[in-house]
Amino acid sequence: MSTDTSVDPRLLEILVCPVTKGPLRYDRTAGELVSEKAGLAYPIRDGIPIMLPDEARKF
């Protein structure tokens, strides 16, 4: 399982947090999509955002 942090910018424009339906912030350094409102960071694997709450990291 490799981590690739490149994500299509058009995809980032339409993605929302599945928990809050709120906006996501792209953290290029960590390779995650961050939902500040939910306190979750969704991983990006092989360029694909994994938008499952069970896979997200809590912060």
TrEMBL record:
InterPro entries: Trm112-like. It comes from Plastoroseomonas arctica. The lineage of its organism: Bacteria, Pseudomonadati, Pseudomonadota, Alphaproteobacteria, Acetobacterales. Coiled coil: none annotated. SUPFAM superfamilies: Trm112p-like. This is UPF0434 protein GXW79_03780. GO terms for cellular component: cytosol. Belongs to the UPF0434 family.
